[in-house]
Amino acid sequence: MQTQTTSLLEHFRSQKLEIKNIFKEFAKPIFNNVFFINLAALRLESEFYEFNNNNWSQRPTIFCMEIYEEPLLYPIILLVNNIKSFLEFVPNNLAITNSNQHVIIAPYRSIINKILSTSK
């Protein structure tokens, strides 16, 4: 049987520059992270999605793939929704509307890129 290996370094190197820069931001201390600094702007410039898909439960990458067509935007989704881990990405841990619907705050891609462009 043939052995299969995966190199995380190679995987990271093959990502788009946008994704590399997002992960560089999240490698910084939280108070230096441009997404944390601009958290209010991210939340204001967002679309709200009702958490009505069981496939999203504990899978923010699946949510990001469906909404942005890019699964590796999940750190921003977790930050904006005040979620600390994949395991907490469930409806009960998200914001609730007046009509008792749990919603995911998903910043517009344009605001993500605008904030990322301010990074040093």
Describe the structure.
A three-stranded antiparallel sheet has the order 1-3-2. The longest helix is centred in the first third of the chain and has 11 residues, at 17-27. It has helices at 8-13, 17-27, 34-37, 39-44, 60-68, 74-80, 109-117; strands at 46-50, 95-96, 102-107. The model has no long low-confidence stretch (mean pLDDT 92). The chain has one domain (15-117). With 120 residues, it is an alpha+beta fold.
Structural class: alpha+beta
Low-confidence stretches: none
End-to-end distance: 47 Å
Strand elements, count: 3
Rg calc: 15 Å
Q: Give the percentage of residues in beta strands.
A: 5-15%
Q: Based on CA inertia axes, which overall geometry fits?
A: globular
**Main sheet record:** 3 strands, antiparallel
Across the major sheet, the strand order is 1-3-2
Helix content: 40-55%
Quick check: average pLDDT?
92
User: Secondary-structure element sequence?
Assistant: HHHHEHHEEH
The number of domains: 1
Number of helices: 7
Summarize, please:
With 120 residues, the protein is an alpha+beta fold.
Q: Can you lay out the helices and strands and say which pair or pack?
A:
Blueprint: H1 8-13, H2 17-27, H3 34-37, H4 39-44, E1 46-50, H5 60-68, H6 74-80, E2 95-96, E3 102-107, H7 109-117
Antiparallel strand pairs: 1-3, 2-3
Could you name the key traits of this structure?
120 residues, alpha+beta, three-stranded antiparallel beta sheet
